[in-house]
Protein backbone atom coordinates (compact mmCIF):
# COMPACT_ATOMS: atom_id res chain seq x y z
CA UNK A 1 0.00 0.00 0.00
CA UNK A 2 1.33 3.42 -0.94
CA UNK A 3 2.54 5.58 1.92
CA UNK A 4 0.51 8.56 3.06
CA UNK A 5 1.56 11.73 1.17
CA UNK A 6 0.45 13.89 4.07
CA UNK A 7 3.68 12.95 5.88
CA UNK A 8 5.73 15.09 3.49
CA UNK A 9 7.15 18.05 5.40
CA UNK A 10 6.65 16.47 8.80
CA UNK A 11 9.46 17.29 11.23
CA UNK A 12 10.17 15.14 14.27
CA UNK A 13 11.39 16.51 17.62
CA UNK A 14 15.20 16.84 18.01
CA UNK A 15 16.92 13.78 19.45
CA UNK A 16 18.61 13.77 22.86
CA UNK A 17 22.28 14.84 22.47
CA UNK A 18 24.77 12.19 21.27
CA UNK A 19 28.21 12.77 22.79
CA UNK A 20 30.98 11.99 20.31
CA UNK A 21 33.76 10.11 22.10
CA UNK A 22 37.36 9.93 20.86
CA UNK A 23 37.48 6.18 21.38
CA UNK A 24 34.28 5.78 19.34
CA UNK A 25 35.93 7.75 16.52
CA UNK A 26 39.03 5.53 16.79
CA UNK A 27 36.88 2.40 16.71
CA UNK A 28 35.09 3.64 13.57
CA UNK A 29 38.34 4.65 11.82
CA UNK A 30 39.84 1.21 12.60
CA UNK A 31 36.70 -0.51 11.30
CA UNK A 32 37.06 1.20 7.93
CA UNK A 33 40.84 0.68 7.96
CA UNK A 34 41.62 4.39 7.82
CA UNK A 35 44.91 5.29 9.50
CA UNK A 36 44.66 9.07 8.98
CA UNK A 37 46.12 10.51 12.23
CA UNK A 38 43.49 13.29 12.30
CA UNK A 39 41.11 10.64 13.69
CA UNK A 40 43.26 9.45 16.57
CA UNK A 41 45.99 11.98 17.34
CA UNK A 42 44.84 15.35 18.73
CA UNK A 43 48.19 16.97 17.85
CA UNK A 44 47.92 15.84 14.23
CA UNK A 45 44.35 17.17 14.11
CA UNK A 46 45.49 20.50 15.58
CA UNK A 47 48.17 20.82 12.91
CA UNK A 48 45.33 20.73 10.38
CA UNK A 49 43.52 23.50 12.26
CA UNK A 50 41.01 21.40 14.24
CA UNK A 51 40.54 21.83 18.00
CA UNK A 52 40.54 18.05 18.61
CA UNK A 53 40.42 14.73 16.73
CA UNK A 54 37.79 14.71 14.00
CA UNK A 55 35.56 11.88 12.79
CA UNK A 56 35.70 10.31 9.31
CA UNK A 57 33.16 11.92 6.95
CA UNK A 58 30.63 9.07 7.08
CA UNK A 59 30.80 8.59 10.88
CA UNK A 60 27.82 10.88 11.47
CA UNK A 61 25.53 8.47 9.63
CA UNK A 62 25.30 6.24 12.71
CA UNK A 63 23.78 9.19 14.55
CA UNK A 64 21.49 10.47 11.79
CA UNK A 65 20.26 6.99 10.91
CA UNK A 66 19.34 6.27 14.48
CA UNK A 67 17.41 9.54 14.46
CA UNK A 68 15.71 8.55 11.19
CA UNK A 69 14.45 5.52 13.11
CA UNK A 70 11.83 7.83 14.63
CA UNK A 71 10.43 8.26 11.14
CA UNK A 72 10.97 4.73 9.88
CA UNK A 73 9.30 3.21 12.92
CA UNK A 74 6.44 5.73 13.11
CA UNK A 75 3.46 3.36 13.23
CA UNK A 76 1.29 5.98 11.53
CA UNK A 77 3.60 6.02 8.51
CA UNK A 78 3.50 2.23 8.22
CA UNK A 79 6.77 1.61 6.36
CA UNK A 80 7.64 -2.11 6.03
CA UNK A 81 11.15 -1.87 7.43
CA UNK A 82 11.97 -5.52 6.70
CA UNK A 83 11.91 -4.63 2.99
CA UNK A 84 13.94 -1.41 3.22
CA UNK A 85 17.20 -0.86 1.37
CA UNK A 86 19.42 2.21 1.41
CA UNK A 87 19.11 4.01 -1.92
CA UNK A 88 21.13 7.21 -1.73
CA UNK A 89 23.11 9.02 0.92
CA UNK A 90 24.45 12.56 0.89
CA UNK A 91 26.13 14.81 3.44
CA UNK A 92 26.82 18.56 3.43
CA UNK A 93 29.30 19.57 6.11
CA UNK A 94 29.58 22.97 7.78
CA UNK A 95 32.51 21.55 9.75
CA UNK A 96 33.74 18.05 10.61
CA UNK A 97 32.27 16.19 13.59
CA UNK A 98 34.83 16.09 16.40
CA UNK A 99 35.45 14.52 19.80
CA UNK A 100 33.43 16.19 22.54
CA UNK A 101 30.61 17.29 20.26
CA UNK A 102 27.14 16.83 21.72
CA UNK A 103 24.96 16.47 18.65
CA UNK A 104 21.21 16.56 18.20
CA UNK A 105 19.42 15.53 15.02
CA UNK A 106 16.17 16.95 13.69
CA UNK A 107 14.63 14.70 11.04
CA UNK A 108 12.20 15.89 8.36
CA UNK A 109 10.40 13.84 5.72
CA UNK A 110 11.27 15.57 2.44
CA UNK A 111 9.48 13.27 0.01
CA UNK A 112 7.26 10.20 -0.12
CA UNK A 113 6.88 8.46 -3.47
CA UNK A 114 5.59 5.25 -4.90
CA UNK A 115 7.34 3.87 -7.94
CA UNK A 116 6.55 0.47 -9.45
CA UNK A 117 5.14 -0.67 -6.13
CA UNK A 118 8.23 0.47 -4.20
CA UNK A 119 7.81 3.02 -1.42
CA UNK A 120 10.50 5.69 -1.48
CA UNK A 121 11.18 7.91 1.51
CA UNK A 122 13.56 10.89 1.60
CA UNK A 123 14.62 11.97 5.08
CA UNK A 124 16.73 15.04 5.88
CA UNK A 125 18.60 15.09 9.17
CA UNK A 126 19.90 18.44 10.43
CA UNK A 127 22.71 18.00 12.93
CA UNK A 128 23.45 20.75 15.45
CA UNK A 129 25.99 21.03 18.24
CA UNK A 130 25.38 22.05 21.85
CA UNK A 131 25.74 25.74 21.00
CA UNK A 132 23.00 25.33 18.40
CA UNK A 133 25.42 25.70 15.47
CA UNK A 134 24.75 23.66 12.36
CA UNK A 135 27.38 20.94 11.82
CA UNK A 136 26.16 18.73 8.98
CA UNK A 137 23.04 17.87 7.00
CA UNK A 138 22.40 14.25 5.99
CA UNK A 139 19.98 13.22 3.24
CA UNK A 140 18.95 9.55 3.33
CA UNK A 141 16.83 7.85 0.68
CA UNK A 142 15.18 4.61 1.80
CA UNK A 143 13.41 2.27 -0.59
CA UNK A 144 10.92 -0.31 0.69
CA UNK A 145 10.83 -2.90 -2.06
CA UNK A 146 7.40 -4.03 -3.22
CA UNK A 147 6.20 -7.21 -1.51
CA UNK A 148 6.09 -10.20 -3.86
CA UNK A 149 2.68 -11.21 -5.13
CA UNK A 150 1.21 -13.98 -3.01
CA UNK B 1 41.58 23.14 7.69
CA UNK B 2 44.70 22.56 5.66
CA UNK B 3 44.54 20.44 2.58
CA UNK B 4 47.93 19.35 1.20
CA UNK B 5 46.86 19.94 -2.38
CA UNK B 6 46.67 23.44 -3.77
CA UNK B 7 43.68 24.58 -5.80
CA UNK B 8 46.01 26.10 -8.37
CA UNK B 9 47.78 22.75 -8.87
CA UNK B 10 44.72 20.88 -10.10
CA UNK B 11 42.70 21.13 -13.26
CA UNK B 12 39.60 19.46 -14.58
CA UNK B 13 40.60 15.89 -15.38
CA UNK B 14 43.31 15.64 -12.69
CA UNK B 15 43.26 12.04 -11.48
CA UNK B 16 43.56 11.20 -7.80
CA UNK B 17 45.66 8.13 -6.88
CA UNK B 18 43.32 5.13 -7.25
CA UNK B 19 43.10 2.62 -4.40
CA UNK B 20 41.82 -0.92 -3.87
CA UNK B 21 40.22 -1.82 -0.55
CA UNK B 22 39.82 -5.46 0.51
CA UNK B 23 36.74 -6.41 2.55
CA UNK B 24 36.22 -9.70 4.38
CA UNK B 25 33.44 -11.03 6.60
CA UNK B 26 35.56 -10.09 9.61
CA UNK B 27 35.68 -6.48 8.39
CA UNK B 28 31.88 -6.42 8.14
CA UNK B 29 31.48 -7.72 11.68
CA UNK B 30 33.90 -5.07 12.92
CA UNK B 31 32.06 -2.36 10.96
CA UNK B 32 28.70 -3.54 12.29
CA UNK B 33 30.01 -3.09 15.83
CA UNK B 34 31.57 0.30 15.17
CA UNK B 35 28.59 1.73 13.28
CA UNK B 36 25.76 0.07 15.19
CA UNK B 37 24.24 -1.37 11.98
CA UNK B 38 23.62 -5.02 12.85
CA UNK B 39 21.36 -5.87 9.90
CA UNK B 40 21.97 -9.66 9.44
CA UNK B 41 22.31 -9.29 5.65
CA UNK B 42 25.83 -8.06 6.47
CA UNK B 43 26.97 -11.14 8.44
CA UNK B 44 24.43 -13.99 8.21
CA UNK B 45 24.56 -15.92 4.93
CA UNK B 46 21.39 -17.89 5.63
CA UNK B 47 19.43 -14.72 6.32
CA UNK B 48 20.89 -12.90 3.29
CA UNK B 49 19.87 -15.71 0.96
CA UNK B 50 16.40 -15.92 2.48
CA UNK B 51 15.76 -12.30 1.54
CA UNK B 52 16.93 -12.91 -2.03
CA UNK B 53 20.55 -11.78 -1.93
CA UNK B 54 23.31 -13.88 -3.56
CA UNK B 55 25.34 -13.92 -0.31
CA UNK B 56 26.32 -11.62 2.55
CA UNK B 57 26.78 -8.05 1.27
CA UNK B 58 28.85 -5.18 2.61
CA UNK B 59 27.10 -2.26 4.28
CA UNK B 60 26.56 0.46 1.67
CA UNK B 61 27.94 2.87 4.25
CA UNK B 62 31.12 0.77 4.51
CA UNK B 63 31.66 1.13 0.75
CA UNK B 64 30.89 4.84 1.02
CA UNK B 65 33.47 5.18 3.81
CA UNK B 66 36.15 3.39 1.77
CA UNK B 67 35.52 5.41 -1.39
CA UNK B 68 36.01 8.80 0.29
CA UNK B 69 39.45 7.69 1.51
CA UNK B 70 40.72 8.29 -2.03
CA UNK B 71 39.73 11.94 -1.54
CA UNK B 72 40.81 12.38 2.09
CA UNK B 73 44.19 10.67 1.54
CA UNK B 74 44.79 12.99 -1.42
CA UNK B 75 43.60 16.18 0.29
CA UNK B 76 45.41 15.32 3.55
CA UNK B 77 42.74 16.86 5.78
CA UNK B 78 39.51 14.80 6.02
CA UNK B 79 37.87 17.98 7.36
CA UNK B 80 38.31 19.54 3.92
CA UNK B 81 35.35 17.50 2.58
CA UNK B 82 32.44 19.92 2.16
CA UNK B 83 29.92 17.60 0.49
CA UNK B 84 29.76 13.90 -0.25
CA UNK B 85 26.97 11.88 -1.81
CA UNK B 86 26.48 8.47 -3.43
CA UNK B 87 23.81 6.23 -4.87
CA UNK B 88 23.98 2.56 -3.90
CA UNK B 89 23.56 0.85 -7.26
CA UNK B 90 24.81 -2.72 -6.68
CA UNK B 91 25.78 -4.58 -3.52
CA UNK B 92 29.36 -5.60 -2.76
CA UNK B 93 29.03 -9.37 -2.33
CA UNK B 94 31.45 -10.71 0.29
CA UNK B 95 32.06 -14.48 0.13
CA UNK B 96 32.98 -16.47 3.22
CA UNK B 97 36.62 -17.13 2.37
CA UNK B 98 39.99 -15.63 3.26
CA UNK B 99 39.94 -13.30 0.28
CA UNK B 100 36.55 -11.62 0.62
CA UNK B 101 35.87 -8.94 -1.99
CA UNK B 102 37.75 -5.97 -3.40
CA UNK B 103 36.39 -2.45 -3.76
CA UNK B 104 38.28 -0.52 -6.44
CA UNK B 105 38.00 3.24 -6.33
CA UNK B 106 39.13 5.76 -8.93
CA UNK B 107 38.50 9.50 -8.83
CA UNK B 108 39.13 12.63 -10.85
CA UNK B 109 38.54 16.32 -10.60
CA UNK B 110 35.36 17.00 -12.57
CA UNK B 111 34.95 20.73 -11.95
CA UNK B 112 36.69 23.65 -10.29
CA UNK B 113 34.23 25.59 -8.14
CA UNK B 114 34.30 28.82 -6.15
CA UNK B 115 36.08 29.36 -2.85
CA UNK B 116 38.99 26.98 -3.62
CA UNK B 117 36.70 23.97 -3.85
CA UNK B 118 36.67 21.28 -6.51
CA UNK B 119 34.15 18.58 -7.35
CA UNK B 120 35.63 15.10 -7.46
CA UNK B 121 33.73 12.32 -9.24
CA UNK B 122 34.35 8.83 -7.85
CA UNK B 123 34.00 5.44 -9.49
CA UNK B 124 33.70 2.38 -7.23
CA UNK B 125 33.55 -1.13 -8.63
CA UNK B 126 33.60 -4.64 -7.18
CA UNK B 127 33.83 -7.86 -9.20
CA UNK B 128 33.60 -5.76 -12.37
CA UNK B 129 30.32 -4.11 -11.38
CA UNK B 130 29.79 -0.46 -10.56
CA UNK B 131 28.66 -0.42 -6.92
CA UNK B 132 28.26 3.33 -6.40
CA UNK B 133 26.55 5.71 -8.81
CA UNK B 134 26.46 9.52 -8.83
CA UNK B 135 29.34 9.39 -6.40
CA UNK B 136 30.61 12.92 -5.89
CA UNK B 137 32.52 14.88 -3.32
CA UNK B 138 33.24 18.59 -2.99
CA UNK B 139 36.53 19.27 -1.25
CA UNK B 140 38.21 22.54 -0.24
CA UNK B 141 41.85 22.76 -1.29
CA UNK B 142 44.64 25.00 -0.05
Automatic annotation (TrEMBL), chain A:
It holds the Pfam family FAS1_DH_region. Signal peptide: none annotated. This is UPF0336 protein KJK29_14415. Belongs to the UPF0336 family. InterPro entries: FAS1-like_DH_region, HadA-like, HotDog_dom_sf, UPF0336/Enoyl-CoA_hydratase. Residues 6-137 form the FAS1-like dehydratase domain. The lineage of its organism: Bacteria, Bacillati, Actinomycetota, Actinomycetes, Kitasatosporales. It comes from Streptomyces koelreuteriae.
UniProtKB/TrEMBL annotation, chain B:
This is MaoC family dehydratase. Gene3D superfamilies: Hotdog Thioesterase (3.10.129.10). It comes from Streptomyces koelreuteriae. Residues 14-120 form the MaoC-like domain. SUPFAM superfamilies: Thioesterase/thiol ester dehydrase-isomerase. Pfam families: MaoC_dehydratas (PF01575). It comes from the Bacteria. Belongs to the enoyl-CoA hydratase/isomerase family.
Amino acid sequence: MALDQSFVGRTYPPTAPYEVGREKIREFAEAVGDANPAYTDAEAAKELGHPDVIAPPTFVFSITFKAAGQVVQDPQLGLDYSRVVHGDQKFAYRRPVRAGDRLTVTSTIEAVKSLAGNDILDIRGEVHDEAGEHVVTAWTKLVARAAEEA
Amino acid sequence: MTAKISYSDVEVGTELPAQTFPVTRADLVQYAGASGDFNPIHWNEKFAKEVGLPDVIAHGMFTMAEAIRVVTDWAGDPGAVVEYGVRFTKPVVVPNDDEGALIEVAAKVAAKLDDNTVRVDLTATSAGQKVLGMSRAVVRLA
